[in-house]
Fold these 3 entries.
Entry 1:
Amino acid sequence: MKQNRNFNDLVNEHITSEKDVGILLQATLEDYSITGDKSEFLAGLKLASQCLENIKGISGLAKKTGINRQHLYDMLSPKGNPSFINIAKITKALGYEITIKQHK
């Protein structure tokens, strides 16, 4: 019988390093630049906080960013609308930076 696996199991199996998290964030940000749908990028940020051992989820991200935990949940929800400053705080806390490159 085929065993059902949940999303978190798949994430934990495939996103196993900081490099994997970086690839995930880059891919979701590129998708946003093409589609204009920010929900995947926001989900990627939330997922990154759960995958990085030095962050330990939204609570750890709240401590590192100084942003209230509930506010983080709201910002990173599919309907979230975080400010650029908060996105910069989150990415910095995760160990990444936002860069700009010329659009092709």
Note: The radius of gyration is 14 Å.
Entry 2:
Amino acid sequence: MRRSVAALARAGVYRRRPKTFGDCAPGPCPWVSCRHHLKLDVDPVTHSVKDNFPGVEVEEMAATCSLRVAAEVGDEDVMSLEQVGAYANVTMERARQLVAEALISSRRAMKRGKKP
């Protein structure tokens, strides 16, 4: 039997996915399909899914959203590679590689006049 969206919403089971960061509810984010969620990564070429925190439930994660982590850190603060690695569940060296890739991507986008 198929339940309606309204019935699911009344039961507290169904919530619409937030469209903006401002719409996000506090606490662990249940929307693992969001591209900013830290639980899963999807390879852009092969479309394979990688679980960044195997054996850890979303509710047990210290942080679930990369946007929320960035907002908490702020513009003036700097995160160490160890901290970045802990949030992404990668080694410090891999965190350094990711930061380097992000900087290259941002520079290319700025040269093209686009947002990164």
Note: The mean pLDDT is 81.
Entry 3:
Amino acid sequence: MGVFYEQSEVVNRTSKVLHVRFDGQDIELQPNYDAEGKLLVDVRNMIPTITIPYAKSQNVLMGSEAAMDPTDYEVLIGVKAKSGAKQKDDISFCEQSSEPTRVRLEDYLDDPTLKIQVGGRRLKRGEARETDHPHASGHLVDERVR
């Protein structure tokens, strides 16, 4: 990826390949763990240090973002410190959740009766879904406000 002097080692905390896009270029981060959560010691992911904030914001654990604070979320990658005593980022094993958005919608909308549905049939009162329509805004739709 380009010519960047300073490189940092990052840990892909999942068992699947993750991607980082910076300056129009893609970087593949190979998994540092197998499906059982065992560390793969021979895998090293080096990326330019300047890309770390972008890599973190592009690889968020879905459903982990705080409803009232968009800067409070868990990420699927961590920067590996040169010495273990200085380790700041979490580099333990975790997998992506099945939540459809960064924020748990039940927390954000503060309505435990709201049902989230991705695609499918016409919505009933009190349901919401993500839209795949090319001309739609991509925001969640709440039928109760119509």
Note: Residues 52-58 form the longest helix (7 residues).
